[in-house]
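ok so i was messing around last nite and threw this chain in just to see what happens. nothing serious, just curious
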Amino acid sequence: MREVRAPGRAAGHDLLRAVVAELAGVDRASVSIVQRCPDCGGPHGRPVVMEPSAARGIGVSLAHAGEHHVVAAMTGARVGVDAEPRETSPVRLEALRALLRHDTPDPLLHWTRVEAVLKADGRGLRVEPADVLLEPTADGLTASVPGSSRRFAVHEIALDDALVVSVAIAR
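result:
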């Protein structure tokens, strides 16, 4: 998991390629990551490593929070990451509460957990965020998503005091 602060989304994409190259032991220039929306075909959605073949088994995720870009990559597992600025407007907090349909003392943390799970699941917001089930277990926090048998380990990550960051890893 890494974070970079820079204007523009390209910085996050560059960081993700660098992390994948490091994990796969390949040249950064050889890494191709594609984002394609399954609904509209646009250049957004879950990122997938396409090249080189040595890197295809790496699960990746990317989150943008203002000028902060957080990436997660893991060999052999689906991973999702989400980040939100800690300083968020009351309007945004109310919107998150409405999406989650859950009154929680920390809607930013709850939202990043849910969004990380939905990214790891691969369906993103095509699944109702309020339907993600988060359960405390002896090992920490586990999540499940309707329509999938996968379970996800969910963790909070301390990267930058300005951010609330969560990561979900498929078990």
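not much to say yet. Residues 2-170 form a domain with the Ribosomal Protein L22; Chain A fold (CATH 3.90.470.20).
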